[in-house]
């Protein structure tokens, strides 16, 4: 009886191979990458690429490398046949691009492949064609040629119609091929590269062997890129700071005078062209904070890591690798980029074009200056909804279609909910707001740099261990969300309930808990490296302690007189803290003067001070919650107490509740929005427990909402 179940059958090998081929070769640019890598593996010093119809009709890569041994020709396109590794262990030390023996095989299953090869000193070249992994029956034939190898791939996807249809126009496919070649050319300055469309004498890429990478980048991308490149070099081996990993960076990044609307991010890890979204985002965020919003960077980076730290076998197209210490490495690079940019930001130059006599001044003087900004400026459509003025279609395309359109824009201060509410504010106020925000962000970043100066590291083992615990307990996805969120606004500022958006999802977060954790982490990261801010009026500890005790034991009979009176206990607390004054100052920047008064508090974030009304609780917590006998436990508790003290706190706000139109933002909400949340992006490593205990809760997903609306 036919019950709908079908028997399991082994797939024919040609089906298996064609399926596998589809994983390796998606489009002509993948084939170009594989062929160029083979040429480089063969020791080529010149590589010529030609493409017809964007590589769909023909893609040919000619090199002057060592050529293919004639005996090897029958195996050239056989799956899993390679000359580059022999055992799985070889992968650990594999320095060649290839190792799977799959690239040419894949091509031969979805295209017609021809190889012409000639060893140096041979009398002639040899040519043979391949289909479905095998050499043609005609075998290899002698022919005229030059030393090296030329592989031609014709009629890509002739037997996979869906793939063929999915390819873009010839010019788009050609652009992708060119992009791949440009990137390899950027890396290998010792190899000459050319690329042209077949039948055209003009090359689209002409990169002769270059003396330096800047010279090479100029040949590839033109002088606009090359003239403003800053060197990013770093080596853990020569760094003053100690690292748990080995890393060498050789990079060039654009400075403040480079103008582009698109990021170019070229990343090689151990010479492999790879993608690393977190690193790209981290670099972009630094540029976004320091340079004018519309400017996107050009970044070339070659990271060298120990082979054993990198797993190259994680993606069929080899475009991804996994490497150890990713977060720490991203952090190091981010701070290096930041350092370079802050140094260059002060020397920004502007090109001024002289107006021809009689030419009309566009918009005139000051207006002309701001005209570029108008593109990104915000308008109020009368319903309190602020929108970016960029053409709608572009926005939609960028957002990946209507269902992914989101209301807020991470790059606009106006994207936050508060901006939507502040209808009362005039446009001048808004402008001023924006400028202030940018200034603050830059100031904060400068401050961070000073505080998080990578030449500083706390030598205490206990602190190092606590910092390691933080890193080990970090929740990666949550970290991504925090790092790349757009703040929507406060739902209930007094309770610390805020909304943040990440991509198409909306999250409700407990800002008090988040900031508490961030200040805990800042304390440990900056341990023994705090500056202090002086209190306007030093606060006497006995009074603070007494106040806190009275508050805590307000209930009748809750105080046990066996400990003495509250005044006596408050005096004891003051004495005990005065005894610890040196240590508190040196490690935490808490200043206690001779009169047993707190006269200074640590600067955790520039522009941020804790709610002074919490000072009594803080003093009591120092006395009650800290175990002063065990070093590690003591430092951990001190950091916790400081975390609680510095956490944002809407409860102490004295905003008029009768401000009925709800448009007024309290000072603490403002500081939270402008200082604390931006700082979280870089400073907070959210622990795993946050994912379970409600500190961050996803409350909506835009795609799903659209589905619901569609049904309605
Ligand atoms: N341009 C070339 N010059 C010399 N030998 C080549 C060239 N291209 C390919 N070969 C030889 O053909 C073999 C198969 O190449 P193929 O690209 O299919 O596999 P691979 O490079 O070994 O591994 P991978 O699939 O990871 O690229 C190579 O191992 C190499 O010996
Ligand atoms: Mg290969």
UniProtKB/TrEMBL annotation:
It is found in: Nucleus. Keywords: DNA damage, DNA repair, Nucleus, Ribonucleoprotein, Ribosomal protein. Residues 217-342 form the DNA mismatch repair protein S5 domain. Coiled coil: none annotated. The keyword DNA repair applies. It comes from the Eukaryota. One of its GO terms (biological process) is mismatch repair. Gene3D superfamilies: 3.30.230.10, Histidine kinase-like ATPase, C-terminal domain (3.30.565.10). Residues 361-401 are annotated as: Disordered. GO terms for molecular function: ATP binding; ATP hydrolysis activity; ATP-dependent DNA damage sensor activity; mismatched DNA binding. It holds the Pfam family Mlh1_C. Residues 371-382 have a biased composition (Basic and acidic residues). GO terms for cellular component: MutLalpha complex; ribosome. Belongs to the DNA mismatch repair MutL/HexB family. This is Ribosomal protein S5 domain 2-type fold,subgroup.
């Amino acid at each position: 009886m036919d019950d709908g179940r079908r028997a399991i059958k082994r797939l024919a090998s040609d089906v298996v191979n064609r399926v596998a081929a589809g994983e390796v070769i998606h489009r002509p640019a993948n084939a170009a990458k594989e062929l160029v890598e083979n040429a480089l593996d063969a020791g080529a010093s010149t590589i010529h690429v030609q493409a017809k119809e964007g590589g769909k009709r023909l893609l040919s890569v000619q090199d002057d490398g060592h050529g293919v041994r004639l005996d090897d020709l029958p195996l050239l396109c056989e799956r899993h046949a390679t000359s580059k590794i022999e055992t799985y262990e070889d992968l650990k030390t594999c320095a060649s691009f290839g190792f799977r023996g799959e690239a040419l095989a894949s091509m031969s299953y979805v295209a017609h492949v021809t190889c012409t090869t000639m060893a140096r000193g041979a009398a002639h070249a040899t040519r043979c064609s391949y289909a479905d992994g095998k050499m043609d029956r005609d075998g290899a034939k002698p022919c005229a040629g030059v030393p090296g190898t030329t592989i031609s791939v014709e009629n890509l996807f002739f037997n996979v119609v869906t793939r063929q249809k999915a390819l873009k126009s010839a010019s788009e496919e050609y652009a992708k091929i060119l992009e791949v070649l440009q990137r390899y050319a950027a890396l290998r300055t010792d190899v000459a590269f050319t690329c042209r469309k077949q039948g055209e004498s003009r090359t689209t890429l002409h990169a002769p062997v270059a003396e330096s990478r800047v010279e090479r980048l100029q040949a590839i991308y033109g002088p606009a890129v090359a003239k403003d490149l800053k060197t990013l070099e770093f080596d853990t081996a020569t760094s003053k700071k100690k690292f748990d990993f080995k890393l060498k960076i050789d990079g060039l990044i654009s400075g403040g005078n480079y103008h582009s609307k698109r990021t170019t991010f070229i990343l090689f890890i151990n010479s492999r062209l790879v993608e690393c979204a977190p690193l790209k985002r981290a670099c972009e965020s630094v540029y976004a904070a320091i340079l004018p919003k519309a400017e996107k960077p050009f970044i070339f980076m070659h990271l060298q890591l120990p082979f054993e730290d990198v797993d190259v076998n994680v993606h069929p197209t080899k475009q991804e690798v996994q490497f150890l210490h990713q977060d720490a490495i991203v952090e190091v690079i981010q701070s290096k980029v930041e350092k370079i940019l802050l140094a260059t930001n002060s020397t920004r130059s502007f090109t001024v074009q002289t107006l021809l006599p009689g030419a009309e001044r566009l918009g005139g003087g000051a207006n002309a200056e701001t005209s570029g900004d108008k593109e990104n400026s915000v308008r109020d459509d009368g319903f309190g909804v602020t929108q970016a003025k960029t053409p709608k279609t572009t926005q939609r395309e960028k957002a990946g279609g209507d269902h992914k359109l989101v209301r807020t824009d991470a790059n606009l201060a106006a994207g936050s909910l508060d901006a939507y509410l502040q209808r009362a504010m005039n446009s001048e106020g808004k402008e001023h707001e924006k400028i202030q925000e940018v200034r603050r962000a830059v100031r904060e970043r400068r401050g961070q740099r000073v505080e998080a100066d990578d030449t500083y590291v706390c030598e205490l083992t206990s602190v190092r261990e606590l910092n390691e615990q933080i890193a080990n307990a970090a929740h990666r996805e949550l970290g991504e969300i925090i790092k790349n969120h757009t703040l929507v606004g406060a739902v209930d500022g007094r309770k610390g309930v805020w909304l943040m958006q990440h991509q198409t999802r909306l999250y409700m977060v407990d800002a008090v808990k988040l900031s508490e954790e961030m200040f805990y982490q800042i304390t440990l990261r900056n341990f023994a490296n705090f500056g202090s801010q002086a209190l306007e009026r030093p606060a006497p500890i006995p009074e603070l302690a007494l106040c806190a005790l009275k508050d805590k034991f307000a209930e009748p009979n809750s105080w046990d007189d066996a400990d003495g009176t509250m005044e006596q206990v408050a005096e004891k607390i003051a004495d005990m803290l005065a005894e610890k004054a040196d240590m508190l100052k040196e490690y935490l920047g808490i200043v206690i003067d001779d009169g047993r008064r707190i006269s200074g508090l640590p600067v955790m974030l520039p522009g941020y001070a804790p709610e002074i009304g919490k000072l009594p609780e803080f003093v009591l917590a120092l006395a009650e919650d800290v175990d002063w006998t065990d070093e590690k436990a003591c430092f951990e508790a001190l950091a916790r107490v400081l975390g609680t003290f510095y956490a944002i706190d809407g409860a102490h706000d004295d905003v008029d509740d009768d401000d009925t139109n709800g448009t007024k933002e309290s000072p603490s909400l403002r500081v939270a929005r402008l200082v604390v949340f931006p700082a979280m992006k870089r400073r907070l490593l959210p622990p795993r427990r946050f994912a379970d205990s409600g500190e961050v809760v996803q409350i909506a997903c835009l795609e799903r909402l659209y589905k619901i609306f569609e049904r309605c």
